[in-house]
Design a protein that fits this description.
3 domains; alpha/beta; GMP Synthetase, Chain A, domain 3
Amino acid sequence: MAKPIVAVVGRPNVGKSTFFNKMAGARISIVEDTPGVTRDRVYADVSWQNYDFTLVDTGGIDPYSDDPLLTQMRAQANIAIETADVILFFVDGHEGLTGADYEVADMLRRTKKPVLLVVNKLDTPIKDVDRMDFFALGIGEPLPISSVNLLGIGDLLEELCKLLPDPEEASAGEDEEGPLKIAVVGRPNVGKSSLVNAILGQERVMVSDIAGTTRDAIDTPFRDNGRDYIIIDTAGIRRKAKVKEASLERYSVIRSLAAIRRCDCALLLIDAQDGVTEQDQRVAGYIADEGRACIILVNKWDALEKETGTLEKFTKKVRADLKFLDYAPLLFISAKTGQRVNRLLPSVNEVCDNARRRITTGLLNDALHDAISVTPPPSDHGRRLRIYYATQASVAPPTYVLFVNDKDLFHYSYERYLENHFRKSFVLDGTPIRILVRERGEKED
């Protein structure tokens, strides 16, 4: 299930980063009393009770400034707002209302998205009276907090969770069939938009040799051979050190990550002329972390000078560099010439079907017993791991729960062995597998 995105916005110096750091449990954002210190949006996954969401910190919005840096911060905050499911609008309860607060409030009202008005820096009970002035913003009831002293945070999170999807209902809907969502991701200028155009058979997405042309995550629905799809062209994910401060590229990463989260299959594009780079590995890590089905595409294969054994050597190098995507099929294509692009959608269908496959408890335990008979579970200091039975908990990715006598005896190497055995038994190419271990008596969930 894709986590909802919650954006923390407001004018500079109202305590957004302090709140973010408290929630994230670490000093992820820089906190100073100088407006404009948070120059890049920062994000972290947060859990509260049964709710999981991604919190996005943003630079302050100053509607009146012509300063180039603050202008860029305004732009990146807008991207966070557009991507967010819920917005936390922070104002300064100590300083009071400003003209900039009214401007930001007006901008947020136009988004038609759920907004919670958070009055920060109310560090003593007597200052709770000050929050009443903020009703004038027309956003709703002000929620008083102190990020520094952690006052009112629980009440704020309770109100926030009321606006998030119910976790049980969202999980129940995961198995529902619908259009297959395909996210095209990778570094800038590896041919993502060209590939989208090749798949669609028409110029639906702007193509340019200039890195960073695609600023947004663009959804395009289409139909092929009786099946519905949505293809998502994303902005290139570029390593921070390579992005200039005045460029919007650095602010498009969150959209690419959001696209990975909501897709059924991620197409990871690699430039054949560059090979696998550090940033390719980073993007691949996002895909693996989110548990998405994946196909690795080596693009611009037509432009690479080849000799005997080039394909085999390149394949071996890609597999070595992207070990954590060892389940992903590897295709060598040219988006420009259309080379092997016709193989792509059948491969997408296959890996998505594999990711959604349910295995009956009987078949799963038959495969488990076969694996155990070939390679018995490990032992430690005379105590042997016993696996009683297995059941499938969910799909996309397929998640199997194993009930054992002692979780501490379940070594990672044996988990990998069982994962590989399940792959061979049930043909699960293209999708990650999750194995959860429970001791007898524990709940499955």
